[in-house]
Amino acid sequence: MxxxxxxxxxxxxxxxxxxxxxxxxxxxxxxxxxxxxxxxxAAYANSTAAAFSDGMYSIAADLDARLNSxxxxxxxxxxxxxxSAEAIDGVSSAIEAVKSAEGPAAKAAADAVLADAANALYxxxxxxxxxxxxxLLSGELAEFNARGNTIRNNDYxxxxxxxxxxxxxxxxxxxxxxxxxxxxxxYR
Length: 188
Hints:
By secondary structure, this protein is mostly helical. It has helices at 6-10, 13-16, 18-53, 59-78, 85-100, 104-128, 131-152, 156-168, 172-179. Helix 4 packs antiparallel against helix 5 (85-100), helix 4 runs parallel beside helix 6 and helix 5 packs antiparallel against helix 6. It is rod-shaped. The chain starts with 5 loop residues before the first helix and ends in a 9-residue tail after the last helix. The mean pLDDT is 89.
């Protein structure tokens, strides 16, 4: 074997020691795994969260449309003579609860309460409505329920499951702990 190459000749004395060189290489490899791996895992977490909240096909967009339909249902029900203030206030309060809920799970729980309140208001108002009001009530409830079906068929929960499966494996679990990456919350 020939002597050391030119690069080895200009290395500082500690790096010419084989044990130090191996340790430095291991540190560099670990830094790459945890640094680059952590950045990729954090980006994956962000893209999973964005699937819930960003874009016209997100749960958040459909939930906004659902809230608009519920508000329209309240507007029409207020014009129906004999509808109780409690039923109207129940839907209005539920709308505000969905708006103020933080995170997918809290929004899902608040939306379930809203669905019950909207259906109760519809049942009460439709029994008292004249034909034109009945048609408006039915149209708003149909839109409200259609958005609920769209939300139930959204792929966000499966994306969250895929992310959580990735995060639960090794070394992602360790990298996630170091980077502060947490499991994705489900909408249910």
